[in-house]
Amino acid sequence: MTNKSLSNSQRALNELRAKIFSGELSAGSDHLESELADLLEMSRTPVREAVLTLESQGLLEMRPRKGVRILPLSPDDMNEIYDVLTELESHAAERAAEAGHSTEDLSRLAQAIDDMDAAILKEDLDAWADADDRFHKELVVLGGNSRIEAIVSMMSDQVRRARSTTLFMRPLPTKSNADHRVVYQAIRDGDPELARSTHKMHRQHAKKMLVDLLQKHRLRFL
Amino acid sequence: MTNKSLSNSQRALNELRAKIFSGELSAGSDHLESELADLLEMSRTPVREAVLTLESQGLLEMRPRKGVRILPLSPDDMNEIYDVLTELESHAAERAAEAGHSTEDLSRLAQAIDDMDAAILKEDLDAWADADDRFHKELVVLGGNSRIEAIVSMMSDQVRRARSTTLFMRPLPTKSNADHRVVYQAIRDGDPELARSTHKMHRQHAKKMLVDLLQKHRLRFL
DNA sequence: GCATTTTTTAATGCATACGCAATGAAATGC
DNA sequence: GCATTTCATTGCGTATGCATTAAAAAATGC
Beta strand pairing status for B67-70 and B30-31? Predict the structure, then answer.
């Protein structure tokens, strides 16, 4: 049986996050605390606590008397976020390569890469995105810095909502996995500099692709 | 007139932060919500909100029924934090150098460097630390990424409390300013790679010095 | 004595109530 | 009509009370 006892403020946190990612609470929309409380069928107190946490994670903004606003993402925001991800993930890749991980340790990474290949063959973008998430997440875990894990996870969350839009605008990421394999091998073979530089290029490329895409489609906010 | 109306939860945030930095709430100590509420002369509600925010910033931890625990810093934590600072500040330095700032734009940076020199002459460590903070803060501002600003500020806060201890254990930072000047000049002269690499070395050196110091003094927690 | 159960205690999570202040509407003056 | 003031509304910040339940203390059995 799945744990049924979960505090209301925890539930509020989970459900609000889910509703933000799913778009049920859309970017730029405003919501009164009491409205959210009604929606989640609890009092304002736990909702406020959840909202406060989500605000500190950059997903929304509390504006007294105007309501809670789900933050939209501009191309500038994308640039900022990707720059943070680039730096911290590249560092993680370097550290992971220094750590001398066994092939066993790297199995999740390998699995994610295989899954991406499979997803591309089937042209299943959602499955690809899921595997890509797992790759980046595991890479950071292997880097062994829990703060980097937390920050990267936060930044990834900030772009997560927008991805449902961008994912289907972009070309099939057929080339992307070549980079992943190089990073994987560099980590396995203990080549920190290669792991870092390859991953850095990979992320910089992704950033450019994404921002160009937004520009091309004249999307000023997501 | 300074703004006198400040919500209680804002006041709680400010005052709790101050008390953590000053050591009045010491690392590892536990405090009940009601105890903090009494201390700040307000009800538990705004205290809880402030505590929630501070938790998300990594300064403390809420442990139901055991109280709010001010988080101690281990040498491992220091390593993690300095690695994040190293990566993100170096990136900021690189970006600042790319941005083509005028000498005017860089005046705060120059001022901070001068102040550090003056502080060292007077052997005033508190003044030095203050100027050093300003240098690093301004560097990140010049980098132009608001998320990096926020993250760096958060990480700096996490080590701030510990610095009151380490500051007086370490040798006078007489050499440190040479690095700062190189970074400054690289930014002014538009040499991103030099700005980045110099600052990165600077931070790596600081990390090593600090961690060695803790080891030498057998300080497992701060 | 020591382990186990029962009872007591009290900190928290949350609902609720309410005053204040900000916002928009209505009224007033020009 | 337009600007300004007054008024009404209502969302938020905060205090308060209470049920829950984890932890401590006491009681019981061996």
Answer: antiparallel
